[in-house]
Design a protein that fits this description.
By secondary structure, the protein is of the alpha+beta class. It contains five helices and twelve strands. The strands form two sheets. A six-stranded mixed beta sheet has the order 3-4-2-1-12-11, with helices on one face. A six-stranded mixed beta sheet has the order 5-6-7-8-10-9, covered by helices on one side.
């Protein structure tokens, strides 16, 4: 197994509109892998802005941005990237961008995969987006897989259920409400795992609660995970 556990975080950052507070929160949590929803969206400059955010957070940009439907993955130097993919999920005209991004990584020479996604506001679309895009990306990865993002629905609804049917495990609790950030009433941000991985801790990020609403309209979810060596 890896020498030390890794900290994974998923976070909808509202286009990084509140950059100073957002940067403070991310640097305070110090995740090893950060799966981001709602990155900056402007054409031409968005990819540069995503890389600037990663630098500000003292992390490495790995994949995504506009090509991933405004989802991206950034990591600490502990994580070595082997390959990456990004896909935009088609939405009706005038609806927000959606997509999925994935990386095949290695930690202490152990393979691990990470998938970030942001699902539609249209309820009838989300199950199909999971089936046709998110799980397709996850199934191409080797080793334990972490799947995370803004599902735009609560546990028990079709998208969550399809992910669980695919072998992912939800270690979150009912009290881990994520939206809206200032007075959360719903749990719509997921962080689930599949394969040889032990979840040591799963919770909304442990920071000053007053910081949440200053940084974004969502609260970030973290999981401390231990990867287990896969038998060969």
């Amino acid at each position: 197994m890896t020498d030390l556990p890794i900290l994974v975080m998923t976070y909808n950052i509202l286009g990084a509109r509140h950059g100073e507070a957002l940067g403070r929160l991310v640097r305070e949590v110090r995740p090893d892998v950060l799966l981001v929803n709602e990155t900056p969206k402007l054409p031409i400059v968005s990819n540069w802005q995503c890389r600037r955010l990663a630098r500000d957070w003292k992390m490495q940009f790995r994949a995504g941005g506009r090509s991933g439907g405004s989802n991206m993955i950034v990591t600490s130097d502990r994580v070595q990237m082997v390959s990456a993919s990004a896909r935009r999920i088609s939405q009706p005209r005038f609806k927000p961008r959606r997509g999925a991004v994935a990386i095949q990584a290695e930690l202490d020479e152990q393979p691990a995969g990470f998938v970030g996604c942001h699902l539609s506001l249209i309820a009838n679309s989300r199950h199909h987006e999971v089936e046709d895009h998110v799980l397709v990306a996850a199934d191409r990865l080797t080793g334990p897989v972490v799947l995370a993002g803004d599902l735009n629905e609560t546990p028990g609804k079709p998208a969550w259920a399809r992910i669980l049917d695919a072998g992912f495990v939800d270690h979150g609790g009912r009290e881990e409400l994520t939206f809206p950030a200032d007075a959360p009433s719903r749990r719509i941000d997921a962080l689930l795992v599949r394969g040889d991985v032990t979840v040591l801790q799963h919770r909304v990020a442990d920071v000053d609660p007053a910081l949440f609403a200053r940084a974004s309209d969502h609260r970030p979810v973290t999981a401390l995970v231990q990867l287990t060596e896969t038998a060969t």
